[in-house]
Write the structure tokens for this entry.
Amino acid sequence: MSKINRQGILDILDGYDKEDITIATLGSHSSLHMFHGAKAEGFKTAIVCEEGREVPYKRFNVVDEYIMVDKFSDIVNDDVQQQLVDMNSIVFPHGSFVAYAGLDNIETIFNVPMFGNRDILRWEAERDLERKLMTESGIRIPKKINNPNEIDSTVMVKFPGARGGRGYFVANSTDEFNEKIDAMLKRNWIEEEDIKEAHIEEYVLGCNYCIHYFFSGLKDEVELMGIDSRYESTIDGLVRVPAKDQLDIGADPSYVITGNHPVVMRESLLPQVFDIGDKITETAKELVKPGFNGPFCMQTLVNDDLEVVVFEMSARSDGGTNTFMNGSAYSYLYHGEPLSMGRRMAMEIKNGIKEDRLEEIIT
Ligand code: AMP
């Protein structure tokens, strides 16, 4: 199927009443601060919501229009798209939107104007593309081990589709790698043919910081909007267990995200934070035009050499932005008022309308 026609999207945008724009998204993930922020900036809001999931949006009263669907993936249905376009909607993407709408559909059949670069979403989803972007930008990432026989220090092993950390494991030697692979085969967590897909990388012993950036296409500048740290089961539960019992009950820890907490970094690390943001956005401009646009997140571990090592990225609003519904220490410094990521996104749309440059930040 052919890719979404850019001119088609621009024509739809052209037909919109710019005085009556609606900010729309799927009711999940990080939509609360998107809706709240859009309303704070004077926009109408519309939710596409699965039956039974509407309670938070009603209780928090952040949504004007409800498009109720049987299942979230119905957001790509023609009638839902038409309703969105009829409301002059600009869609704000987030993790659940990408998961339920589906990357292929976003690239080929979802004909509603979206904030950001819809082409860059694939670059976070495919490990090879993600690694290419990170490698070419020259930021510090975990070293890759190409062959299990070369394991001579602690490594993290990841399988495709194991995102969210279920099925990740740590190994210290080739023997241990083989033992753990056998155990996974026995539990039917992986199939024989998955083994060659194992991605093996340096285990970075350090603290977790997920850095939320906003790239303003209008200002051509990266802003630091906040930093959160992940709360992951079972690994974070394990540290509450006495050491003598950890081996028995924690033999196969998982890294399933269950929540986030706000953090700040040592001030002396912030130059690295801005450097990472600047490098990755410059490289993205070359590799996947027009590059990052709006929110993105670099998931990092900081080791005791004070290196900020990036092990993962999100090319859209990250779930950790929920930590800052009322702004973070950093977004406060920038804007002098509590500002969520959602509100920053809405501000960009508002500025795009004011400067008559909306087409530069919409795909
Ligand atoms: P991910 O699914 O990539 O977000 O990873 C889930 C969790 O696995 C992370 O939050 C980290 O705690 C851990 N992790 C991932 N990659 C590494 C690595 N190279 N070294 C140490 N821990 C890692």
